[in-house]
Protein backbone atom coordinates (compact mmCIF):
# COMPACT_ATOMS: atom_id res chain seq x y z
CA UNK A 1 0.00 0.00 0.00
CA UNK A 2 1.32 3.45 -0.81
CA UNK A 3 1.90 5.00 2.60
CA UNK A 4 2.18 8.64 3.57
CA UNK A 5 4.23 10.62 6.02
CA UNK A 6 1.91 11.73 8.79
CA UNK A 7 -0.94 11.15 6.34
CA UNK A 8 0.09 14.41 4.64
CA UNK A 9 0.02 13.12 1.08
CA UNK A 10 -3.21 11.22 1.63
CA UNK A 11 -4.84 14.23 3.23
CA UNK A 12 -3.87 16.56 0.40
CA UNK A 13 -7.07 15.74 -1.42
CA UNK A 14 -9.09 16.13 1.76
CA UNK A 15 -7.58 19.46 2.71
CA UNK A 16 -8.09 20.86 -0.76
CA UNK A 17 -11.40 19.12 -0.91
CA UNK A 18 -13.32 20.92 -3.64
CA UNK A 19 -10.50 22.43 -5.58
CA UNK A 20 -12.44 22.67 -8.84
CA UNK A 21 -16.01 22.88 -7.57
CA UNK A 22 -18.14 25.49 -9.25
CA UNK A 23 -16.08 25.70 -12.43
CA UNK A 24 -17.66 27.36 -15.42
CA UNK A 25 -19.44 24.32 -16.81
CA UNK A 26 -22.16 24.70 -19.39
CA UNK A 27 -25.61 23.82 -18.01
CA UNK A 28 -27.23 21.42 -17.94
CA UNK A 29 -24.40 19.28 -16.63
CA UNK A 30 -24.08 16.65 -13.99
CA UNK A 31 -20.66 15.03 -13.92
CA UNK A 32 -18.12 16.81 -16.01
CA UNK A 33 -14.38 16.52 -15.40
CA UNK A 34 -12.69 19.20 -13.27
CA UNK A 35 -11.22 22.18 -15.04
CA UNK A 36 -12.19 25.39 -16.72
CA UNK A 37 -15.26 25.78 -18.88
CA UNK A 38 -14.97 26.09 -22.61
CA UNK A 39 -14.67 29.69 -23.76
CA UNK A 40 -13.82 30.56 -27.38
CA UNK A 41 -10.33 31.93 -27.88
CA UNK A 42 -10.13 35.43 -29.33
CA UNK A 43 -8.00 36.13 -32.42
CA UNK A 44 -5.72 38.49 -30.50
CA UNK A 45 -5.00 35.96 -27.75
CA UNK A 46 -1.90 33.82 -27.65
CA UNK A 47 -0.95 30.63 -25.88
CA UNK A 48 2.22 30.36 -23.83
CA UNK A 49 4.06 27.37 -22.39
CA UNK A 50 5.61 28.12 -19.03
CA UNK A 51 8.07 26.09 -16.99
CA UNK A 52 8.89 26.94 -13.39
CA UNK A 53 12.16 25.30 -12.29
CA UNK A 54 11.71 24.76 -8.57
CA UNK A 55 15.19 23.46 -7.81
CA UNK A 56 16.92 26.54 -9.23
CA UNK A 57 18.22 29.07 -6.69
CA UNK A 58 16.29 31.25 -6.88
CA UNK A 59 13.46 29.42 -8.68
CA UNK A 60 13.05 30.81 -12.18
CA UNK A 61 10.46 30.72 -14.95
CA UNK A 62 11.07 30.16 -18.65
CA UNK A 63 8.27 30.68 -21.15
CA UNK A 64 7.70 30.81 -24.87
CA UNK A 65 4.75 31.63 -27.09
CA UNK A 66 3.27 28.62 -28.85
CA UNK A 67 4.19 28.93 -32.53
CA UNK A 68 0.82 28.39 -34.18
CA UNK A 69 -0.96 30.55 -36.73
CA UNK A 70 -4.18 30.65 -34.74
CA UNK A 71 -5.31 29.20 -31.39
CA UNK A 72 -8.28 27.77 -33.29
CA UNK A 73 -6.13 25.61 -35.59
CA UNK A 74 -4.99 22.09 -34.79
CA UNK A 75 -1.33 21.40 -35.45
CA UNK A 76 2.02 19.82 -34.58
CA UNK A 77 4.35 22.66 -33.61
CA UNK A 78 7.99 22.08 -34.54
CA UNK A 79 9.10 23.80 -31.36
CA UNK A 80 10.81 23.32 -28.00
CA UNK A 81 11.03 25.21 -24.74
CA UNK A 82 14.76 25.53 -24.06
CA UNK A 83 15.77 25.52 -20.40
CA UNK A 84 19.06 26.61 -18.82
CA UNK A 85 21.78 23.93 -19.00
CA UNK A 86 21.98 21.14 -18.03
CA UNK A 87 18.17 20.79 -18.15
CA UNK A 88 17.02 19.12 -21.38
CA UNK A 89 14.42 21.01 -23.45
CA UNK A 90 10.69 20.34 -23.45
CA UNK A 91 9.40 19.43 -26.92
CA UNK A 92 5.94 20.38 -28.18
CA UNK A 93 4.31 17.48 -30.04
CA UNK A 94 0.63 18.15 -30.75
CA UNK A 95 -1.85 20.96 -30.18
CA UNK A 96 -5.62 20.47 -30.11
CA UNK A 97 -7.86 23.57 -29.89
CA UNK A 98 -10.75 21.39 -28.60
CA UNK A 99 -9.55 18.37 -26.67
CA UNK A 100 -11.42 15.69 -24.70
CA UNK A 101 -9.71 13.77 -21.92
CA UNK A 102 -9.32 10.00 -22.23
CA UNK A 103 -8.05 7.84 -19.36
CA UNK A 104 -6.52 4.38 -19.26
CA UNK A 105 -5.61 2.64 -16.00
CA UNK A 106 -3.60 -0.58 -16.05
CA UNK A 107 -2.46 -2.90 -13.28
CA UNK A 108 1.03 -2.29 -11.92
CA UNK A 109 3.52 -4.67 -10.32
CA UNK A 110 5.01 -1.89 -8.20
CA UNK A 111 4.02 -2.07 -4.53
CA UNK A 112 4.12 1.72 -4.30
CA UNK A 113 1.57 2.20 -7.08
CA UNK A 114 -1.66 3.79 -5.85
CA UNK A 115 -5.13 2.25 -5.93
CA UNK A 116 -7.60 3.40 -8.57
CA UNK A 117 -11.36 3.20 -8.99
CA UNK A 118 -13.68 3.99 -11.85
CA UNK A 119 -16.76 5.90 -10.69
CA UNK A 120 -19.91 5.44 -12.78
CA UNK A 121 -22.62 8.10 -12.39
CA UNK A 122 -25.92 7.04 -13.92
CA UNK A 123 -29.32 8.69 -14.25
CA UNK A 124 -32.42 9.11 -16.39
CA UNK A 125 -30.87 11.29 -19.10
CA UNK A 126 -27.07 11.07 -18.82
CA UNK A 127 -24.31 8.72 -17.69
CA UNK A 128 -20.65 9.38 -17.01
CA UNK A 129 -17.56 7.41 -15.98
CA UNK A 130 -14.33 8.74 -14.57
CA UNK A 131 -11.20 7.06 -13.19
CA UNK A 132 -9.90 8.43 -9.89
CA UNK A 133 -6.48 7.53 -8.53
CA UNK A 134 -5.48 7.87 -4.88
CA UNK A 135 -2.72 10.16 -3.55
CA UNK A 136 -2.82 12.39 -6.64
CA UNK A 137 -4.45 15.80 -6.05
CA UNK A 138 -4.80 16.33 -9.82
CA UNK A 139 -6.64 13.04 -10.48
CA UNK A 140 -8.53 12.02 -7.36
CA UNK A 141 -11.51 14.38 -7.72
CA UNK A 142 -14.69 14.56 -9.74
CA UNK A 143 -17.08 17.50 -9.55
CA UNK A 144 -20.51 18.29 -10.91
CA UNK A 145 -23.58 20.33 -10.14
CA UNK A 146 -25.20 17.43 -8.27
CA UNK A 147 -22.26 16.16 -6.18
CA UNK A 148 -18.52 16.09 -5.58
CA UNK A 149 -16.39 12.96 -5.25
CA UNK A 150 -12.95 12.33 -3.80
CA UNK A 151 -10.97 9.10 -3.72
CA UNK A 152 -8.46 8.20 -1.02
CA UNK A 153 -6.63 5.09 0.15
CA UNK A 154 -5.06 4.14 3.49
CA UNK A 155 -3.04 1.20 4.77
CA UNK A 156 -5.05 0.22 7.84
CA UNK A 157 -8.00 0.96 10.12
CA UNK A 158 -6.06 3.39 12.31
CA UNK A 159 -5.25 5.56 9.31
CA UNK A 160 -8.89 5.33 8.24
CA UNK A 161 -10.11 6.58 11.64
CA UNK A 162 -7.75 9.55 11.55
CA UNK A 163 -8.81 10.46 8.04
CA UNK A 164 -12.50 10.21 8.91
CA UNK A 165 -12.03 12.61 11.81
CA UNK A 166 -10.46 15.06 9.38
CA UNK A 167 -13.43 14.61 7.04
CA UNK A 168 -15.90 15.38 9.82
CA UNK A 169 -14.19 18.59 10.87
CA UNK A 170 -12.64 19.86 7.63
CA UNK A 171 -14.91 22.91 7.28
CA UNK A 172 -14.64 23.96 10.93
CA UNK A 173 -10.96 23.54 11.69
CA UNK A 174 -8.58 26.48 11.50
CA UNK A 175 -6.53 26.96 8.32
CA UNK A 176 -2.80 26.28 8.38
CA UNK A 177 0.27 27.00 6.29
CA UNK A 178 2.60 24.24 5.13
CA UNK A 179 6.10 25.54 4.42
CA UNK A 180 8.72 23.37 2.73
CA UNK A 181 11.55 23.34 0.26
CA UNK A 182 10.48 23.50 -3.42
CA UNK A 183 10.56 19.69 -3.71
CA UNK A 184 8.32 19.32 -0.63
CA UNK A 185 11.11 18.27 1.74
CA UNK A 186 11.37 19.56 5.31
CA UNK A 187 7.66 20.39 5.49
CA UNK A 188 6.50 22.35 8.55
CA UNK A 189 2.92 23.19 9.56
CA UNK A 190 2.16 26.63 10.97
CA UNK A 191 -1.03 28.13 12.43
CA UNK A 192 -2.51 31.00 10.45
CA UNK A 193 -1.62 33.63 13.04
CA UNK A 194 -2.11 37.15 11.73
CA UNK A 195 0.85 39.55 11.86
CA UNK A 196 2.79 37.26 14.22
CA UNK A 197 6.20 36.44 12.68
CA UNK A 198 7.05 32.75 12.95
CA UNK A 199 10.67 31.62 12.61
CA UNK A 200 11.52 28.22 11.13
CA UNK A 201 15.13 27.56 12.09
CA UNK A 202 15.45 24.35 10.07
CA UNK A 203 14.30 26.12 6.88
CA UNK A 204 16.18 29.31 7.87
CA UNK A 205 13.20 31.51 7.13
CA UNK A 206 10.63 33.75 8.81
CA UNK A 207 6.93 33.68 7.89
CA UNK A 208 4.29 36.33 8.60
CA UNK A 209 0.64 36.16 7.53
CA UNK A 210 -0.62 39.63 6.64
CA UNK A 211 -4.13 38.80 5.43
CA UNK A 212 -6.58 35.91 5.01
CA UNK A 213 -9.61 35.93 2.70
CA UNK A 214 -12.09 33.03 2.75
CA UNK A 215 -13.53 34.04 -0.63
CA UNK A 216 -10.78 35.79 -2.61
CA UNK A 217 -11.59 37.67 -5.81
CA UNK A 218 -9.96 40.40 -7.85
CA UNK A 219 -11.71 43.75 -8.18
CA UNK A 220 -11.10 44.48 -11.86
CA UNK A 221 -11.88 48.18 -11.53
CA UNK A 222 -9.48 48.79 -8.64
CA UNK A 223 -7.06 45.96 -9.47
CA UNK A 224 -7.10 44.94 -5.82
CA UNK A 225 -8.01 41.69 -4.04
CA UNK A 226 -11.38 41.67 -2.24
CA UNK A 227 -13.18 39.20 0.01
CA UNK A 228 -16.64 38.32 -1.30
CA UNK A 229 -18.03 36.32 1.65
CA UNK A 230 -17.24 34.38 4.80
CA UNK A 231 -17.78 31.06 3.01
CA UNK A 232 -14.50 29.30 2.17
CA UNK A 233 -15.05 29.21 -1.58
CA UNK A 234 -11.60 30.48 -2.62
CA UNK A 235 -9.38 30.73 0.49
CA UNK A 236 -6.24 32.80 0.08
CA UNK A 237 -3.57 34.21 2.38
CA UNK A 238 -1.07 37.02 1.83
CA UNK A 239 2.25 35.85 3.27
CA UNK A 240 5.54 37.68 3.90
CA UNK A 241 8.66 35.49 3.63
CA UNK A 242 12.21 36.32 4.75
CA UNK A 243 15.11 34.10 3.70
CA UNK A 244 18.86 34.74 3.47
CA UNK A 245 18.41 38.48 3.90
CA UNK A 246 15.77 38.69 1.16
CA UNK A 247 12.03 39.26 1.55
CA UNK A 248 9.00 38.50 -0.60
CA UNK A 249 5.22 38.79 -0.37
CA UNK A 250 2.98 36.29 -2.11
CA UNK A 251 -0.66 35.23 -2.23
CA UNK A 252 -1.15 31.51 -1.65
CA UNK A 253 -4.38 29.76 -2.67
CA UNK A 254 -5.93 26.61 -1.24
CA UNK A 255 -7.46 25.75 -4.62
CA UNK A 256 -4.27 26.28 -6.60
CA UNK A 257 -1.24 25.41 -4.42
CA UNK A 258 1.24 25.84 -7.28
CA UNK A 259 -0.22 29.01 -8.81
CA UNK A 260 2.42 31.40 -7.45
CA UNK A 261 5.26 28.96 -8.02
CA UNK A 262 4.39 28.97 -11.69
CA UNK A 263 4.46 32.75 -11.97
CA UNK A 264 6.38 35.29 -9.93
CA UNK A 265 7.92 33.83 -6.79
CA UNK A 266 11.70 33.95 -6.43
CA UNK A 267 12.58 32.61 -2.96
CA UNK A 268 13.20 28.82 -2.92
CA UNK A 269 10.36 27.92 -0.55
CA UNK A 270 6.98 26.32 -1.15
CA UNK A 271 4.12 27.74 0.91
CA UNK A 272 0.75 25.96 0.75
CA UNK A 273 -2.50 27.12 2.33
CA UNK A 274 -4.07 24.11 4.07
CA UNK A 275 -7.75 25.06 4.08
CA UNK A 276 -10.69 23.01 2.86
CA UNK A 277 -12.71 24.63 0.09
CA UNK A 278 -16.49 24.79 0.21
CA UNK A 279 -18.76 24.51 -2.80
CA UNK A 280 -21.15 27.10 -4.11
CA UNK A 281 -24.31 25.40 -2.89
CA UNK A 282 -25.53 22.41 -0.93
CA UNK A 283 -24.57 19.60 -3.29
CA UNK A 284 -23.56 16.44 -1.41
CA UNK A 285 -19.89 15.66 -0.92
CA UNK A 286 -18.78 12.02 -1.27
CA UNK A 287 -15.48 10.48 -0.26
CA UNK A 288 -14.70 6.94 -1.39
CA UNK A 289 -12.02 5.24 0.69
CA UNK A 290 -10.07 2.03 0.08
CA UNK A 291 -8.55 0.31 3.12
CA UNK A 292 -5.55 -2.02 2.72
CA UNK A 293 -6.26 -2.32 -1.02
CA UNK A 294 -9.26 -4.56 -0.28
CA UNK A 295 -12.35 -3.02 1.29
CA UNK A 296 -14.17 0.20 0.44
CA UNK A 297 -16.25 2.75 2.30
CA UNK A 298 -18.26 5.74 1.11
CA UNK A 299 -18.57 8.81 3.30
CA UNK A 300 -21.37 11.27 2.60
CA UNK A 301 -21.80 14.86 3.70
CA UNK A 302 -25.30 16.13 2.85
CA UNK A 303 -27.86 18.32 4.61
CA UNK A 304 -25.44 19.17 7.41
CA UNK A 305 -24.83 15.55 8.45
CA UNK A 306 -22.04 13.05 7.83
CA UNK A 307 -22.69 9.35 7.25
CA UNK A 308 -20.46 6.38 6.46
CA UNK A 309 -21.17 2.89 5.14
CA UNK A 310 -19.37 -0.06 3.52
CA UNK A 311 -19.23 0.23 -0.26
CA UNK A 312 -19.26 -2.97 -2.30
CA UNK A 313 -18.54 -2.92 -6.01
CA UNK A 314 -22.10 -4.14 -6.59
CA UNK A 315 -23.69 -1.27 -4.61
CA UNK A 316 -25.52 1.71 -6.06
CA UNK A 317 -25.47 4.84 -3.91
CA UNK A 318 -28.31 7.32 -4.20
CA UNK A 319 -27.28 10.94 -4.77
CA UNK A 320 -29.49 13.13 -2.57
CA UNK A 321 -31.75 15.71 -4.23
CA UNK A 322 -31.32 14.09 -7.63
CA UNK A 323 -32.50 11.12 -9.70
CA UNK A 324 -28.94 9.82 -10.07
CA UNK A 325 -26.90 7.03 -8.52
CA UNK A 326 -23.24 6.13 -8.58
CA UNK A 327 -21.23 2.96 -8.16
CA UNK A 328 -17.73 1.54 -8.44
CA UNK A 329 -17.51 0.30 -12.03
CA UNK A 330 -13.92 -0.97 -11.71
CA UNK A 331 -11.24 -1.25 -9.03
CA UNK A 332 -7.49 -1.74 -9.49
CA UNK A 333 -5.54 -2.24 -6.21
CA UNK A 334 -2.24 -1.09 -7.76
CA UNK A 335 -2.59 0.98 -10.89
CA UNK A 336 -0.87 3.24 -13.38
CA UNK A 337 -2.93 5.94 -15.04
CA UNK A 338 -2.24 7.24 -18.53
CA UNK A 339 -4.17 10.29 -19.73
CA UNK A 340 -4.39 11.42 -23.32
CA UNK A 341 -6.56 13.85 -25.23
CA UNK A 342 -8.43 13.47 -28.51
CA UNK A 343 -10.16 15.92 -30.81
CA UNK A 344 -13.61 17.05 -29.68
CA UNK A 345 -15.62 17.02 -32.90
CA UNK A 346 -18.34 19.15 -31.29
CA UNK A 347 -15.80 21.90 -30.61
CA UNK A 348 -16.82 22.56 -27.02
CA UNK A 349 -13.75 21.44 -25.05
CA UNK A 350 -10.71 23.50 -24.08
CA UNK A 351 -7.27 23.51 -25.75
CA UNK A 352 -4.56 21.02 -24.79
CA UNK A 353 -0.93 20.56 -25.77
CA UNK A 354 1.07 17.32 -25.74
CA UNK A 355 4.69 17.80 -24.67
CA UNK A 356 7.66 15.52 -24.15
CA UNK A 357 10.24 15.94 -21.39
CA UNK A 358 13.06 13.86 -19.87
CA UNK A 359 12.08 12.37 -16.52
CA UNK A 360 14.29 11.76 -13.48
CA UNK A 361 15.29 8.35 -14.92
CA UNK A 362 16.49 10.03 -18.14
CA UNK A 363 13.61 8.56 -20.13
CA UNK A 364 11.46 10.53 -22.59
CA UNK A 365 8.00 11.07 -21.07
CA UNK A 366 4.90 12.51 -22.69
CA UNK A 367 2.25 14.51 -20.86
CA UNK A 368 -0.71 16.64 -21.88
CA UNK A 369 -1.14 20.21 -20.66
CA UNK A 370 -4.75 21.36 -20.52
CA UNK A 371 -5.27 25.11 -20.72
CA UNK A 372 -5.01 26.79 -17.33
CA UNK A 373 -3.99 23.70 -15.34
CA UNK A 374 -0.56 23.11 -13.81
CA UNK A 375 1.37 19.85 -14.05
CA UNK A 376 4.24 19.04 -11.69
CA UNK A 377 6.95 16.95 -13.35
CA UNK A 378 10.20 15.43 -12.10
CA UNK A 379 13.30 15.82 -14.27
CA UNK A 380 17.04 15.01 -13.96
CA UNK A 381 17.61 18.53 -12.61
CA UNK A 382 14.72 18.50 -10.13
CA UNK A 383 10.99 19.22 -9.96
CA UNK A 384 9.30 21.64 -12.34
CA UNK A 385 5.83 23.01 -12.92
CA UNK A 386 4.68 23.30 -16.51
CA UNK A 387 1.50 24.83 -17.87
CA UNK A 388 -0.30 25.99 -20.97
CA UNK A 389 -1.43 29.54 -20.29
CA UNK A 390 -3.60 32.04 -22.10
CA UNK A 391 -2.29 35.56 -22.43
CA UNK A 392 -3.57 38.51 -24.44
CA UNK A 393 -1.60 41.24 -26.17
CA UNK A 394 -1.78 43.25 -22.92
CA UNK A 395 0.51 40.71 -21.27
CA UNK A 396 -1.89 40.20 -18.38
CA UNK A 397 -2.85 36.77 -17.06
CA UNK A 398 -5.87 35.79 -15.02
CA UNK A 399 -6.19 35.47 -11.25
CA UNK A 400 -7.43 32.46 -9.33
Helix-strand blueprint:
Elements: H1 8-15, E1 46-53, E2 60-65, E3 79-81, E4 90-96, E5 99-107, E6 116-122, E7 127-133, E8 141-143, E9 148-154, H2 157-169, E10 176-180, E11 188-191, E12 198-200, E13 205-213, E14 216-219, E15 224-227, E16 236-243, E17 246-253, H3 259-262, E18 270-274, E19 285-291, E20 295-302, E21 305-310, E22 317-318, E23 325-332, E24 335-343, E25 352-358, E26 364-370, E27 374-379, E28 382-391
Parallel strand pairs: 9-19
Antiparallel strand pairs: 1-2, 1-28, 3-4, 4-25, 5-24, 6-7, 6-23, 8-9, 10-11, 10-18, 12-13, 13-16, 14-15, 16-17, 19-20, 20-21, 22-23, 25-26, 27-28
Question: What would you note in describing this structure?
Answer:
With 400 residues, this protein is mostly beta strands. It folds into 3 domains: 1-38 and 103-173 and 276-340, no CATH class; 43-97 and 351-400, no CATH class; 176-274, no CATH class. The chain has 3 helices and 28 strands. It has helices at residues 8-15, 157-169, 259-262, and strands at 46-53, 60-65, 79-81, 90-96, 99-107, 116-122, 127-133, 141-143, 148-154, 176-180, 188-191, 198-200, 205-213, 216-219, 224-227, 236-243, 246-253, 270-274, 285-291, 295-302, 305-310, 317-318, 325-332, 335-343, 352-358, 364-370, 374-379, 382-391. Strand 10 and strand 11 form a beta hairpin. It is globular. Mean pLDDT is 82; it is low at 1-38 and 392-399.
